[in-house]
Amino acid sequence: MKKLVRNTLMLAALPLAVSAAFTGSAAAQTPNLSAEDKAEAGKLYFERCAGCHGMLRKGATGKNLEPANTAKLGTSRLEKILSYGTEGGMPNFDDILSKKQISNLAAYLQMPAEAPPEYGLKQMKADWKLVVPVKDRPTKKMNNVNIENVFSVTLRDSGEVALIDGDTKQIWGIVKTGYAVHISRVSASGRYMHVIGRDGRYDLIDMWTEKPTTVATMKSGYEARSIDTSKYKGFEDKYAIVGAYWPPHYAVLDGETLEPLKVVSTRGQTVDGEYHPEPRVASIVASHDKPEWVVNVKETGMIKLVDYSDLANLKETTINSAKFLHDGGWDSSKRYFLVAANASNKIAAVDTKTGKLAALVDTAKIPHPGRGANINHPKYGKVWATSHLGADVITFIGTDPEGNKDYAWKVVQEVKNHGANSLFVKSHPKSKNIWADAPLNPDPKLAGSVTVYTIADLANPDPKPEVIDIAAAANLGKTKGLQRVVHGEYNKDGDEIWFSVWTGNKTEPSAIVVMDDKTRKVKTVIKDKRLVTPTGKFNVYNTQHDIY
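RESULT FIELD:
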């Protein structure tokens, strides 16, 4: 089995190899599936479900899906949930999967989960590929592209990223990557784009070449979500880190070649004192003020401050917070890191200067900030915002304990979003607005729209937002899949915000709508047959400098 997976690691179809791990020689189950149907259902589970529910189905953002729970629901009820989604943030799949696929997946969920194989440093080194050695790379930029305003756009279902010139709105290059790239991160120098696929494939893209070029690639495991680079002075571009969902660990790599250097397991006790076999690395950010990464371990509820100054004697500071840790970002000072503990309906704030938990802040249901948004609130000063999967609000939390002590680490305001099931909230230091999406809402109108508030209006007792139908502006015509509008991302200058219109089906058209941030009018609609299911977008300058 391991040999089969290793031989297919660099293929875009890696999830097929992973799904084979779910088709072991277990005794026949009731309900039953043929080997072929079970393999396909395992692949679908990996691609569509494991991120929220876990490879072992023990749950996190999503519910526990072990047979003890799913068998109580039964096939018919599971099919309805898979088809129509839930109010808790699970999307409907009736416009993406066939009835047979939904039926097979419902049956599969009632069978015992089987763990994929382990994958350690030895396997990583065997599968690491240095495509272009450092000595053979350009010594100066070989193109006329304004790299600082390039957007790395995830093309979810084609296993690619599109590098789009933010000045001309033209696709500069399409690069093959892993399946469903989760995030793109930029090296401290701004030269390299680092991208991680959900299948664990990690690619390093050189943007000094004439066209964006993959110069190294490796595998962190079978499923992954998070990466970052070393940003502290003297360590620029030296190291990279990748966190895996399976096996649960993080790995430190050479920042210019991706050579695997060290692997650290995250298995262990939770904040409740219980052992967990699958504590996944949910998100990672790099400190600009210390040689340190902030590593968030989902199921344990523990935040690791990892000192990379001496890899041979690696030091970790472990901070207990709450379950289950997910995404987060820096406050405007970049001293405090705020992360969603979305099963606990809390935001954990870490003081990276002291290495201690600053606060656990209670919020509305299932906070999901992405990296969040920092604004200067007209009444409460410096605040950080999150939207929610489980509530139709945008939450503002005070983040200035020195300047506004009375408001620090408190929810100072909640305002209405146009719907629940939001994934991202976004602003920019040069913007007078804050925007939020709701792409997982089952209502097509809400899924295709965004809420935008004028920041100055937040001083009013009952501020009124504008709700903009971005999907209608894309003018894609009728599609089978919902036209979900997701992930606002600003350009470098902060005067444009880009939204993906994602149909969730690679056979149907998608688009990117560029909004003028000041007028809130459509500036450009980017349509191209190569833009296959675009989702996340990452502006080089803003990502490099943690501007959000």
